[in-house]
Amino acid sequence: MEATSTTMGWDRQRHSTWRAKKKPATLSYESRPDRHRKAYAQSLATRKWREYEQAFFRVLENQVRVPEAVIPSVEDEVQLEVRFLGNAAKWERDTRYVSSMTDVVNHPSYEEIIKMGRTAPRRVLSLLLRDMKENDRPWFTALAKIAETNPVDPKDAGRVDRMAKAWFNWGKKEGLL
Predict the structure, then answer these.
(1) Backbone angles phi, psi at 31, to 5 degrees
(2) CB neighbour class for 147 (10 Å; exposed up to 12, middle 13-18, buried from 19)
(3) How far apart (Å, rounded) are the C-alpha atoms in residues 170 and 150?
(4) Is 84 in contact with 113 (CB distance < 8 Å)?
(5) Alpha helices, H only, the chain
(6) What is the pLDDT of residues 118-166, one digit of tens each?
(7) What are phi and psi of 171, to 5 degrees?
(8) Is 142:114 a contact under the CB 8 Å cutoff?
(9) How far apart are alpha carbons 100 and 102 in whole angstroms?
(10) Biggest CA-to-CA distance, the chain
């Protein structure tokens, strides 16, 4: 006797009809109830965002190859900023009551900041400018030594507010602020 689908107790035609009846019809966005529209829109947005994000990272992986040695790590930047802030605080504390500008500029912490600027000039210049803006510390000599330029007009020498303004304008122009 030949085995058929009906002799096994399973009718393919009835089963496929039953599945078709149980399968919910796909609703268009407009025909969905309001409570479902928001969830549908969110899921659609999430799905589109994931597709966009995956495509974006595929492009980046294929086109942009930057050696990891070129990219400074976040830890290095944080360590640099901590060293800078420590030296700046020690310099300010030790030279608060010193009247000689030569002694102020020749302080070991000040010189250490200038050395830091030779290894990471753009980062240290931006730290100096930001600190000068926030704490009013006179970093003019350090800025000039690290940047190897002096945007201050000679007639403004000694006028701290104009000197600071010149350096801030220079920093904005160079993209440091």
Answers:
(1) -85, -5
(2) buried
(3) 9
(4) yes
(5) 12-22, 34-63, 74-95, 101-105, 108-119, 121-135, 140-147, 160-174
(6) 888 888 999 999 899 888 888 999 999 999 988 998 898 888 899 999 9
(7) -65, -40
(8) yes
(9) 5
(10) 115
Please give the Cα distance from 162 to 56 (Å, whole number): 46
Please tell me the predicted confidence (pLDDT) of residue 37. 59
SS3 state at 156: helix
> How far is 57 from 145, CA to CA, in rounded Å?
41
Q: How many residues does the chain have?
A: 177
What is each CA distance from 21 to 17, 32, 165, in whole angstroms?
Answer: 6, 19, 77
**Burial of 120 by CB count in 10 Å (0-12 exposed, 13-18 middle, 19+ buried)?**
middle
Contacts 24+ apart (CB under 8 A), 149-153: none
The pLDDT tens digits of the residues spanning 14-44 come to: 555 555 555 555 555 555 556 565 666 666 6
In angstroms, the CA 1 to CA 45 distance is 57
The tokens of 64 are what?
């942009």
The three-state secondary structure class of 140 is helix
The model's pTM is: 0.57
Most confident option among 11-20, 46-55, 69-78, 107-116: 107-116
Q: Which two tokens stand for residue 14?
A: 């009835």
Terminal CA-to-CA distance of the chain, rounded, Å? Answer: 89
